[in-house]
Every structure is written in structure tokens, then in C-alpha cells.
Amino acid sequence: MKIIVSADGRFHTYHLAEQLQRRGHLLKLITVDPKLHLRKYKIDRRKIANFIFPKLLAHGLIRGLKMDRLKVHYSMAQFFGEWVRRRLEPCDIFTSWSGFALGALPRAKELGAVTVLVRGSAHIEVQKELLEEEYSRFGIDRRTVDNRMVEKELQEYEETDYIQILSTFTKNSFIEKGIPEEKLIRITPGIDLGHFKSLPGKDDLFRVIQAGCSIQKGTHYLVQAMAELNLKNAELLLVGGISDELNSVLQRYEGYYTDYGHVPHFELYKIYSQGSVYVHPSIHEGLAAVQAEAMACGLPLICSTNTGGEDLIRDGVEGYVVPIRDVEALKEKILYLYEHEEERRAMGLAALERTRIFTWDRYGENLIKFYHNILK
Q1: 3: which DSSP letter?
Q2: CB 222 within 8 A of CB 324
Q3: Top-level CATH class of 193-357?
């Protein structure tokens, strides 16, 4: 079984390619990243085809010339997709990230491959609807997806043989939009457990943590919940910096949260280890890896239904799943963990233990089973 993997960036692409390499199935990895960025992955450099021009051009146009991010992203996808199409060769399976596969899909089928489209987020129309509705609630006029990219992905969904998605939430979004369930395969990705561990706490503060804060990630609902609870000996720690648009929404809650700023990814465990609970009330995610990473540091998880978190935890065992935009539900679960320290610690230990099943090796095993099944 020979497989070609194509993607426009890291995501979990390189873990996927690494797992295929280990099992002798990787024919080629096609990417926009330079080989230097892949050195920590055990992938044969001779099997890597990289086309860095679109990425360099995109960075230059967005940062240097301050061009429209969505238009540049679409153009980058066009450049890269055509380059991939020209470099395909006979294989058993061609798997590509959505938005960058349209031109290559028919060519891969001509060469005899089964095609698998990887979608890291919800169905693109659901993503667009959720995010634009959220921005409009706060009077922010922002396009979240180029309409041409929407049309392109819809065509990809139609042309591909299978769509690989990450969570139950994303699967349901495709079914809601009329994609047949038999065309969908859900495989939960792994996490780098070696980089996330629990350290002893330095104080007895009840500390709620969220990383990667934004309007998309529902940070404003968490801040509102903590402000209304106004708990003693408690802190809300927002990690990763606060954008201007989020800051404009949070102004009324000044003093109810701490902006911790940017932390290098593999240093996050030091912050998580000082927390009591990790909360991720996103409006839209495919499957937010930060949730499992925080769990690996011994934190119970409170997440929304739209984060993929329900595929990581069992509700009431390792944490809680709440509806999106539900401040009262957030308050109820946070308050319970605040008032029940013993149960909170038990949930944290259960969360840590639960993450042991989310390894990249297990992901690779599930992926290979899927590939064998579709080739039968």
C-alpha cells in the first residue's frame, strides 16, 4: 500500500506522514514547508517534495503589502494545488487537506488512487455560519472565509471518495449539510504526551485557564461567567495574548482576568500545572489539541459541544461538556469544581489518565485500518 500525503502546513500532517513512514506506506509527502521544519519528524527526506513559494508569497503579501488575508489564502491554495497535481504519481491512496486538493483529486483518480480529503474543521458552510453569526452579535463586520474557498471546498467534498474528520462535532456538521455518513471517517489525532506533564502547584489559588483566546474560542463567555461568579481566592488566566477585536468585547470585564501573554507551545505545561481547571468554550473547532494537552497536565476540562472535547472526555468523569454561548452552564460547572476540591482533583487525575490513549501510534493504527478497509 503506497500513499501520497499533501498539505499546506503542519496541522497533524507530519505525524500522519511519520506514521505511514514507520509502517512502510509513505510514497511521498508534498508540503509548503521547507525540509528544515520537518527535521524532528522521522520522515525520509528523499520522500519530501516541498514547494515553499506560495507560503513565502502569502507572508509577504499579508505582512508586507497588507493585502486581504482571505484573498491571499485562496491564491496560495490555487498555486499549491496546481503544483501538487503536476507531481502526482501512481499510488493506492492520495490524501490531501481540504482547500488545496481540487485540481489534484481527478488526477489522482486517473492514476488509480482512492482519494481521502482531510478536513480539520467543521463543514466549511457550518464554520462560516457559526463564526459570522458570532461576530455579528458584537457588531463586528468580518468575513471569515473567502466565498471562492467555500465553493472550492464544496466541490472537493463532492469529488473525493472519503472525508477524514477529527471529531463527532465535525462529523455531525457534514451530515447536517447532506454529506452521506458512509463517506465520513472520524479518527481522533494524538498529542505529544512527552511534552506535557503535571508539576507541583505553587499556591492554593483556584485558577481557571484558557489558551489561544479569541472570539472564535468563546473567551468572552468564559470571562463573563467568571466576572458574574466573582469567586474569592480565584483567578482567570488567559494565555496567548488578546487580539484587538476580543479586547473591545472584554473592556467591560477589566479586572476579572489576567492576560498572561504569549507562551511557547512546549512551555505551556508549566502554566497548566498551576491551574485548577481548563475551560474551552469555543464556537467552532475541529478538535482543539490544547484541551488534551491541558488534561495531560492533570486538569479537568470544561468544553463546549463544538470543540471536539466530547471525543476526549466522558461527561462528569474527566470534565463537562456544555452548549456554546451558555454562560449559566459555564458558571454552574466552574462553581461546582470550585466548591468540591476532592472531586476536582479526582477529575484531574482521570483526565491525565485518559490522555494516555491519545497517542500518535494509536492514531497511526486506526488510520492504517481505515486505509485497508477502503482498499478492499
Answers
A1: E
A2: no
A3: alpha beta
